[in-house]
C-alpha cells in the first residue's frame, strides 16, 4: 500500500496570514507553484492560490499590499501522511482538490498535488481518475 508519506512533497514554502499578496505571488513565481499554504508557527491556517489572488484580489481591485488572509481559502481539506493514495485520489476528485495539504495534528508537514499522484507508477491510475473527475464538472469550466 502506497501512502501519502511515500509521495508527498515535504519541503513546502509557506507564508503568514499577514504577508501581502504581492510577496505571496513572488514566492509562487520563485518556487514555480500555484499555491502557497498560509501558516502561523507551522499551524496550517489556509491556502492561497494564484486564482485566489486574481479573483479575490486583482478583480476586486485590492492593493498588492493586502494581506494574504484577505484572499486565502480557510475552509480546506487536509489529510494525514498515513492515508492511502487511492483514498486521497477519491477525496481530491470528490471535492475538486488539486493540492492536498498533509498535516500532523494541525501542523503542516507536506503537500500532495495531482502531479505528485501522476508521477508515481502505483498512483498513475488514481491521478487520472481524480483529474478527469475534477475536469468534468461543468460548474468549474470557465
From TrEMBL:
<dbReference type="InterPro" id="IPR051257">
    <property type="entry name" value="Diverse_CBS-Domain"/>
</dbReference>
<dbReference type="Pfam" id="PF00571">
    <property type="entry name" value="CBS"/>
</dbReference>
<feature type="domain" description="CBS">
    <location>
        <begin position="72"/>
        <end position="127"/>
    </location>
</feature>
<feature type="domain" description="CBS">
    <location>
        <begin position="8"/>
        <end position="64"/>
    </location>
</feature>
<dbReference type="InterPro" id="IPR046342">
    <property type="entry name" value="CBS_dom_sf"/>
</dbReference>
<dbReference type="InterPro" id="IPR000644">
    <property type="entry name" value="CBS_dom"/>
</dbReference>
<keyword id="KW-0129">CBS domain</keyword>
<protein>
    <submittedName>
        <fullName>CBS domain-containing protein</fullName>
    </submittedName>
</protein>
